[in-house]
Amino acid sequence: MVKEVAGVIGKTVIHGFFIVLGFLLLGTGQVKAQETQKQYLSGTDKDHTVKWDFFCTAGRNSGKWSKIAVPSNWELQGFGKYDYGFAKDSVKGKEKGLYKYKFKVPAAWNGKKVNIVFEGSMTDTEVKINGVSAGEIHQGAFYAFRYDISKLLKYGASNLLEVTVAKHSANKSVNEAERKADYWIFGGIFRPVYLEALPESHIERVAVDAKADGQFKAQVWTGGSADKVTAQLYSENGNKFGNEINSALAKGTSDVLLSGSFSSPELWSPEFPNLYKVVFTLYKQGKAVHTVTQKTGFRTVDVKQRDGVYVNGVKIKFKGVNRHSFHPQSGRTTSKAISIADVNLMKDMNMNAVRMSHYPPDGHFLDVCDSLGLFVMDELAGWHGNYDTPTGTKLVKEMMSHDVNHPSIVFWSNGNEGGHNRELDHLFTELDIQKRPMVHPWEDFNGFDTQHYREFNYGISNYMHGHSIVMPTEFLHGMYDGGHGAGLDDYWNEMLRHPLSAGGFLWDFADQAVVRTDKNGILDTDGNHGPDGIVGPYHEKEGSFYTIKEVWSPVFFERREMTEDFDGVFNIENRYYYTNLNQCSFSWKLTKFKSAESKTGVLASPDIKPFEKGRLKIGLPSDWRDFDALYITATDPHKRELFTWSFPVTLPVKEASALVTKQGNSAVSLTETDSLYHVQANGISLSFSKKSGVLRSVKNERGVIPFNNGPVVQEGVNNFNGLTGKKDGDNVVIESTFDRKTAYNTLQWTIYPSGWVKLHVRYFPGEYLTNFAGVNFSFPESKMKGVEYMGMGPYRVWRNRTKGNKFGVWKKDYNNTETGESWVYPEFKGYHSNMYWCKFNTTEQPFTVVTENEDLFLRLFSAAFKTDQWHNYEPHFPSGDISFMQGIPGIGTKTQRSDRTGPMSMKNLFYDYEKEPARALNIVLYFDFSGKP
Question: Is 10 exposed, middle or buried, given 0-12, 13-18 or 19+ CB atoms closer than 10 A?
Fold first, then answer.
């Protein structure tokens, strides 16, 4: 590790950049060894940049010298042309960027080895110092590379750096691997550029292997002449850990293997990401001349063929996601703050793994995975195409030397979906001191079946019963609101059950929407290519975020209803790998929605080991039945919320009894015209069709409420016939007549003196398997301002994505969000589960609907219909505008139809099709059209 900020001695500022001369005190403090000195020529990330001179050869703002921020992608700075990887002209190679920058280096650096380092440049990069080539053109966008420029520099004087970057490579295989891909194609120096100065005798690099049993070894490569290398470990609190390891350098050799053993190290895992610092020191003639610091973690990765992946002796199922290095305002130029935010969001979803798609990430992302705890699959670029062997060999070496020491990395990946150059496979083992496994995503290779997007029935019934370890590196391909959480519960239950399953990786983390500086700053996903995320481009959380959070929670609650004889016991399961649930925290809360009264408590954390089941006991107060809901929150040992589970205490029939007023001071009147029944009650006027029983109009003393044209049964036959209207005591009843053959669906309207209206519909779905079951009404979308409802919320649901919400009272303002195209969440339109009541706030006056039904879905309008050539992702909604449903459809993914992602995704099955009223489905709704707030 090098010093980048002020060290023990201090800092020298040259042209606004830090040069740090840091020294490490060793032993008794009498010996000092110089650390690597580092001077940034660019900025450090997207938020800290430096202006260089720039000339773009084609596209916007081309043909003239100007300034550009470095690091950056030049498209986001107003230059060149935006290209998505599938664009026909994306590999013609016309765009180049010419960079110039003047800098100084200290005179004291004369005699040192000085490298110029590029962390990432897209794509072919030619570097000159003072007009002289620094070395061969570098080809490959995502890899750190360096040149020794010691002999090209003017020390203590001004130097000129000239860089020519070709957006597309002159090497066809590089374009095949990196540029003809399903992601945005950018150009430019997109990661930092800096100088590093090393003493004449120095440590070039190190590779560390720290095993779970305490065995430690490190390969150290040196430059110049030296006698000995030592290594001292330090714990995170700065204390020495174990004894110093040392080894002499044989004369004429430039590398050495250090080895030792440490007693009872704290192990690294995503649950407990314990890290150690290793200080390597190089000695020459007994004097410490150079020191390098490297972080490491003790952990062991074992693959047992036809069994599974074991980390620290524990069999793992990966709860992972694919992640691009991306930010909408800066393209592939990111920052450590973005890396921290990304990893925290993944951890918040209870993920334990991330795949680098489809290229190595920024170093700081891997640092954050080390420190916060995520398993990583690091990937050589290759998307349906691969590097040629000479180029690939060089890039594998660059990736390995840059990333090899991260304990978070547990897999290497040689390209993606056919982008595998098999001649490179041997390098991953040869160059990795830890001998981590390597996979070919999309293949059954090396003992791992990583095939992508297997349909549930095929995937579970076939390849789950093969002989390879099953670990799809992409499954449930998100697009708009489809995929991710939809179907995940079914897949995950099977993954947990099958011993050959090692989990899998969702596609993908965030919507790839880029700011178009050529289109007034709009966010562009290139149609349906980029809206694949669980979160939006600025980390806006979509409904699937919370579904995943619940499904992948390491604490699992068996279903339990709050019945009268509830004894306070919940059966739970520990799905952690290393954590006992007594290390977690549990709390509860009882809430009354109307009064906001609540009671809270803390639970004793149960002693339940990983993979075991047990009981969580809550001592509730004697009046717990008077509350509306119970919430239980679990928090991990690091104070991160795992999930908050909701348990309704009250039932819809109880809420309806409390809300609905039937008595009134005025009589209900019934009159008829040729086609309508007219009813008046307490200032409310209603009209119903005498032919179909459908509500035609609603009016009160303040005006018309445009809620009408229902109930319409869907999917089913609207055969309400034989309508009669009559007085029934103080009420008016309008109902249809049952006929086994022609009018087997029935309705009954009851209008009370209070003005409240009851609707009871008995109906049969029209098909054995159906997308919909319920009734629809019409309401003009333009007049809707928002809703307030009691039920699960606030996010919309699909039949195959009902988990993740919380039971409560929710207020939602109207929005027209189309998931993945606009990012105002939660979406207003769609299905909302377990409705008890809903107040509709309109541009004119409100009205309220209450139900006695459990498990009723409230449908609010229709999201825009979208489809594709395979008819996979299709959001289906019934007719009308507002619906009350007992069966709703699932949602598909980009690669799978909804009915092929598991049982929850299939159509609704109503097996009892006898046309008898007693066997029909029933919906009971109450309407308050008084317009009162």
Answer: exposed
For range 366-382, the mean pLDDT = 98
Q: Give the pLDDT of residue 48.
A: 98
Residue 650 · residue 628 · CB < 8 Å:
yes
The amino acid sitting at 914 is E
For residue 780, CA distances in Å to 464, 569, 816, 861, 928 come to 49, 47, 14, 9, 18
Question: Per CATH, which fold does 666-765 belong to?
Answer: Beta-galactosidase; Chain A, domain 5 (2.70.98)
Tell me, what's the pLDDT at 22? 37
Q: Which two tokens stand for residue 168?
A: 């597309």
User: Burial letters for 172-204: b for 16+ Cβ neighbours within 10 Å, e otherwise?
Assistant: ebbbbbbbbbbbbbbbbbbbbbbbbbbbebbbb
Q: Is the dihedral of CA 266, 437, 483, 495 positive or negative?
A: negative
In the chain, CATH 2.70.98.10 covers 666-765
Check pLDDT > 70 for residue 2.
no
Tokens of 170: 């002159």
**Structure tokens given for 614:** 């047990």
Does residue 29 register a pLDDT over 60? Answer: no
Quick check: 378 and 123 in contact, CB under 8 A?
A: no
CA 622 centroid distance within chain:
41
DSSP 3-state of 615: strand
Q: In what order do the strands lie in the sheet with 124-129?
A: 65-70, 50-56, 96-104, 158-166, 124-129, 132-133
Listed in order, the ranges of the chain carrying CATH 2.60.120.260 are 39-198
Query: Which CATH number applies to 39-198?
Result: 2.60.120.260
Query: Please, which residues bridge with residue 884 across strands?
Result: 775, 858
14: left (phi over 0), alpha (psi -120 to 50) or beta: beta
Our measurement of the distance from residue 832's CA atom to the centroid of its chain's CA atoms, rounded to an integer in Å, reads 22
Residue 466 has pLDDT above 90, yes or no: no
Q: Which residues contact 197 (CB under 8 A, 6 or more apart)?
A: 36, 37, 38, 39, 105, 109, 112, 113, 114
pLDDT tens string 61-100: 999 999 999 999 999 999 999 999 876 665 566 899 999 9
pLDDT tens-digit profile of 690-712?
A: 999 999 999 999 999 999 999 99
> What token pair was written down for 85?
């990887």
The answer to whether 34 and 54 are in contact (CB under 8 A) is no
| pLDDT score recorded for residue 25 | 38
Q: Which residues contact 527 (CB under 8 A, 6 or more apart)?
A: none
